[in-house]
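Q: I have 85 residues here and want to know how they pack in 3D. Can you give me a structure?
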Amino acid sequence: MIFPMEAPDSAQGKVASGGRGWQSSFLALRRRLSYPKETWIAASAGIGILAYLICRYAIAGAAQHSGWIVIVVLLGAGAPLVIDL
């Protein structure tokens, strides 16, 4: 039985490119998730408001403490915007 001599070289090439493959996919993911800071602030504020509404109206025991969620959203989303001024 005769084995081709190129098999080990091609296997090494796959290992070497595999290291670069995950790096390039990571960079592609970073490029897809690289939105402006205001987009991330708006998304987190929307999630915070949704959490407030759920705690306020859907969970009976959490209605007393749901105001803290709004304060955290205002401070967390407002601070980066004020710092940029």
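Q: Anything worth noting?
A: Residues 77 and 83 are 11 Å apart (CA to CA). The radius of gyration is 25 Å.
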